[in-house]
Amino acid sequence: MKFPAGLPIGESWIETSDRAPVVFPYDGSAVAxxxxxxxxxxxxxIDHAVGVRxxxxxxxxxxxxxxxxxxxxxxxxxxxxxxxxxxxxTGKPMIDCRVEIDRTLLTLETSAEEVARLHGETVPLxxxxxxxGLQGFWVRKPIGVVVGITGFNYPLLLAAHKVAxxxxxxxxxxxxxxPQTPLATLWLVHLMRSALADAGAxxxxxxxxxxxxxxxxxxxxxxxxxxxxxxxxxxxxxxxARDAAPTKVLLELGSNSALVVAEDADLxxxxxxxxxxxxxxxxxxxxxxxxxxxxxxxREALLERLGARLPAVVVGDPRDPDTRVSALINPQSTERVxxxxxxxxRAGATIAYGAPGTSESATxxxxxxxxxxxxxxxxxxGATIAYGAPGTxxxESATSPEVPGGAVLGPIVLTDVPDxxxxxDEEIFGPVIAVRSxxxxxxxxxxxxxxxxGLHASVFTSSLETAFAAIDRLEVGGVVINDxxxxxxxxxxxxxxxxxGTGREGPRFAIEELTTTRMAIIRPRP
Length: 526
Known about the structure:
The strands form six sheets. Strands 12, 13, 14, 16, 18, 19, 20 and 21 form an eight-stranded mixed beta sheet that branches. Mean pLDDT is 90; it is low at 355-405. A hairpin with a 6-residue loop joins strand 3 and strand 4. The protein is α/β, with parallel strands linked by helices and 526 residues long. It has helices at residues 39-57, 61-77, 79-90, 94-114, 155-168, 183-198, 213-221, 234-244, 267-279, 299-309, 331-346, 422-425, 441-449, 464-473, 507-513; strands at residues 7-9, 12-14, 18-23, 30-36, 121-123, 135-142, 145-149, 173-176, 206-208, 225-231, 248-252, 258-261, 291-295, 350-353, 372-373, 377-378, 408-409, 412-415, 432-438, 456-460, 478-481, 501-502, 515-522. The chain is globular. Helices cover 36% and strands 20% of the residues.
C-alpha cells in the first residue's frame, strides 16, 4: 500500500482521530488500520466538491482523458500488489481478485476513450412552419457532484465504476467504500489525485470518506449533490432513494440470479457454468448463479454432472492460486448463510451433494460437518439426498438440521427449496446454489420471473427460438445465452429492473447517467 495516512479530503489528506482494523476474513488477522471519517468530514468533503464543481466541469477533454490514462498505467504497474491487497481485505480467492484488477483496468481505459465520445447532436426544428430558419442542437453537461457508495465484494472495481465515469463526465466525486474493504479504494483514489495534481487539476475532484450510516446519510441527503450512485442491498438502496429525493439516484442492488437448463442444452457446458458461476468470489457476487431451473427430463443427468464436478472445487486459503471458495467477508455472513440453509432443509429442501460426514434423515438433513461446509443443491419438498461424497453416512431422524461451525463454507447444492424460503427468494451471497425442476422451458422462464429481483439470468439451449424467447420474456437487465449470468462485459449497459435497481453502469452508459442534456435553439438575426 502506497498512499498517505488519513482521508483524501479537499486538497490534502486529513488525519482522523478514529481508526478501525481491516481484517483478513480467512483467519481474522489484522491487515491494517484504516482511518474512519465522521459527519463533519463528510460535510467538508461536500463543500470542497461543490467548490471545484465548475472548474472540474470545464476541464478540457484531453486533460480528463490524460488523467484516466495515467491512472490506468499506474494501476497496471502495481497490478500484483493490488491483487495481494484485495485478497487480504476481501478474503476473495486470488483468481477472482486477478479478474477484478483486469476489469478495473478495462473500466479506466474505456472511460478514458469515452471522453472523446461525449457529445450531442443537431436537430431539425423546421418540422412546423414556426421553426423555419431556426437552428437547434443539444449538448451534454456534467450533472454536478457525485456521491459513490460501494460494496465490499469487489471494492476496487466498484470504485472504478463510479470514479472513472464521473470524472470522464466532468463531475467531482466523493467515494464512500464499505467499512470492511477501504484499502484498495484509498490506493486508487491516491493514484487519481496524483494524476490530477500532475495535470494541474484540483485534487478535490476525487475525494474519499469512510464512516458509518450517519456519514452516508450526510452525503446522500445534501441538496447540493447532483447524483448518488449506490451498490449494495435493496433495503439500503430504497432508503437512500427515498431520503435523497429529488436528487438522481442510481442503484445497483441485489439479485438471486437464475440459470435455466433446457432439454436441448449441452449438459456438460451447463454443469461447468453452474460450478463456475455459483462459486466464484465464494458466491459473494450479485450475479452469481443461485437458482438453477432445469427441465425435468434433464434434471438427474444435470445433478450427476454437478456431483462429479464439486469435489474439484478447492476450498481453503484465498492466497493459494488453486483455491476457488474461501471465507465469507465476516462470521456474521457465514452464520446467516448457515441459517438459511438450515431453514430450507427444515422446510423440505434436501442436500443433493455433501462432503464426508453428510447425513440424511426422514425429516431433516444435516449440512456436512467439519471446518469446511461441503457442496449442496436445492429443489422441491420431500426429496432425499441424491448424491454424497465417499464417507457419507446415514443417521437417525433429526428434528433440527445443523450447519457445523468453522471459518469457511464450502460449495453447497440444495434441491427442491420451496418458495418462501430465503435461500430461494432472497440473495444468499454465499456458495449456495438451488436446483429445481419444471416441466418445460416456458415454465422455467415463468419461474425465473417469479421474484422481486431482476438483474441477470442465463439460459442453456441449442435453440435460437428458445434463446430469443428468453431475451423477450425474462424480466431482467441482462440475458446471457449459454454462459453464466455472471458474464458481464464492462462495455455493456449493466443494471437491473424491479428490486435489482435503476440506472446503468459501464463507462459509456454511466457517463450518460451522470450528464444532463442541454437544449439550444438559435434564431439567426436577419
